[in-house]
Specification:
Oligomer: single chain
Mean pLDDT: 83
Order of helices and strands: EEHHEEEEEHHEEEEEEEEHHHHHHHHHH
Number of strands: 15
Helix content: 25-40%
Distance between the termini: 100 Å
Number of domains: 4
Length: 497
Amino acid sequence: MANSSSNPAPKPYRQNHTKQGGVKRVSKKLKKKPERKSWLVSAIALTVLMGSGALVVTFAWISIQFILNPYQVGWLNKFLPGWAQFSTTGEERPHTLKQIQGSLKEQGLEAGQIFPLKGDTASSFLLPVLKKHSNCQSDCQSIVELRVYQRSKELEVKSNSEKYYRLASQLPVVGPEESFVLAPFAKTTDEDRGSSLSLPLNTVGRFEGETPSSGVWFYLRSDRQEGTSLIAYGIVVYYNSDRSLLQFMLPWTSPNGHLPEWRQVTGGGNKELIVDRTVGLEPQLKIYQAQPVKYFLNPIELEEIAFKQPTLKHSVYRDALLLARSGLWTPALERLESLKKRQKKLFSPLVQSQMDAIRLHSQVTKTQATTIWASPSQEVLADIIDGRWEKALQVFKASPQNAQEVSSLLKADGDRIWKRVETELQVNPKRQSVQAWGALIVAARLGKERANTWLSQHSPIAEDTITYTQGLIELLDGKDPQCEPSHAESCEYNTGF
């Protein structure tokens, strides 16, 4: 007997009886289920989830800081009623300025000169905290901390005639590393200088005049003697008055001892911060814009106007940035100005800011190129830095004495010029004067034969250029004695031939 459970009876079809008594077979159709959630609902749910996660993280951070470092969340008092405000010092009562100074002395520290934040020091002020160093001959005090104090509004001291203050924010101070401070010299000499040791800072100043944002900008600085240069270096600090928070912004260094300054560069409405890192005739201007960022505690940062990442897919624009990176600021500016006349719509605010920063450098190199120099070698160098290759050749050819002095320049400082030669020939390979300068550098460092070889291998180059350049090479005083065959490899490496 067959097992009935293994072969279940098929389910009967539904039957509809017609008026004639017949049976109508009706097939069962599957209906598609509607989608329960649309992509919009999913997106909203994901947004809510991420927002909730961010809030949880923020509240967790605030809670931890409230327990461990209450001064870091002192800005919350601005959003709390008077009865709910808390002390950020971790102590029961606020203090007078004398009490604050006395407390620091007990810790082996000293209070520096105070700076008002709004009007005078009655409502709030910045206080540098100093520490003395033993076994030193000069600058025996350095800044180890910055503090912001605000006038206390707590009920128990309102009836007191003395002014009481509470600690609103504090920022530990660490100076820039020695290698950073000496970096501008390394760029001009191809030598690594300095260490990772942090250098001390001993002076605080406030940027006066119009500055971006509603807060207060400060600089910390010190000086260091390096050869014949007195270097100024330090850090820039911003006090966010809306959050009652001190914020480290960036380190800075200036080989010529200039302080950073806020100046209108791009014409975008706000001033830019300029750090002058110029060494000799090489203009190095770091230009920073204050940009808003989506971060609640520190909603502002300084962003450098850079020339590394092209934002336009245009050959003239890319060539201009290439020239700027090699230090040929005026030729770079000329190409950008020409492009803007033809296609102004391509110039976004970012591209325009790059062009304005290049113009600022070009103003420096143009001034140097039009200066009357007592030394022919300095005049040649100023002309080449500004892209005046033909004018520099005229100075070189003016007399045998000029040629010999320029030959010494090419031996000692040929790397800087060679970098510009390579870049200019990459952009304009047929320019005769630049080809001539390339051959002169090779001849001054490696001899006339190597210069002729370089000329013959360089393409494209015309026969009249070879003849013209060989005549210039004859004006040089011969091969560099340091670049004899035994040292040829190092000379080739240094010049990139």
